[in-house]
Amino acid sequence: MLFGIFAVHSPELCPLNNTRSKKIFLEIENKMKANMKKFNISKVVNFYMSVLEHEWIIILDAKNAHDIEQLCIAVGISSLSTVKIVPMNDFKVVAKKFKSKN
């Protein structure tokens, strides 16, 4: 199942402006890879960021949102950002379901 992680931080906590946040940020990718199996994450589909919006968007293939919550805590994302975890659906899959209901 796909999930979107929407993580927003303040300018003061931005890795551009905060040494502690920069250290956490630079370690996130390796920590995510190291913890994927532990938290039932099948795949990191993509990791995007909008630097000036102070927002990260991470798309994961995972079993459930509770595991993603624990991953965000373990790798440090939640220590500098407010995190929202949203179930996601592929447009083509949803469109196919809608077409089949006619």
Produce a short descriptive summary.
The protein has 102 residues and is α+β, with helices and mostly antiparallel strands. Helices cover 41% and strands 31% of the residues.
Report how far apart the termini are. 25 Å
Q: Got a strand count?
A: 4
CATH C-level class is: Alpha Beta
Assign the structural class, choosing from mainly alpha, mainly beta, alpha/beta, alpha+beta, or little secondary structure: alpha+beta
Count of DSSP-assigned helices: 4
Q: Strand portion, in percent?
A: 25-35%
Order of helices and strands: EHEEHHEH
- Multimeric status of the protein: single chain
The CATH homologous superfamily name equals: Dimeric alpha+beta barrel
What would you say the CATH architecture is? 2-Layer Sandwich
* Major β-sheet strand ordering: 2-3-1-4
Low-confidence runs of at least 5 consecutive residues: none
CA-based shape: globular
The main sheet comes to: 4 strands, antiparallel
What is the helix fraction of residues, given as a range? 40-55%
Could you please say which CATH topology applies here?
Alpha-Beta Plaits
Plain-language structure description:
This protein is of the alpha+beta class and 102 residues long. The protein has a single domain (2-100), classed as Alpha-Beta Plaits (2-Layer Sandwich), CATH 3.30.70.1060. It contains four helices and four strands, in the order βαββααβα. A four-stranded antiparallel β-sheet has the order 2-3-1-4. The longest helix is centred in the first third of the chain and has 17 residues, at 19-35. The protein is globular and about 55 Å long.
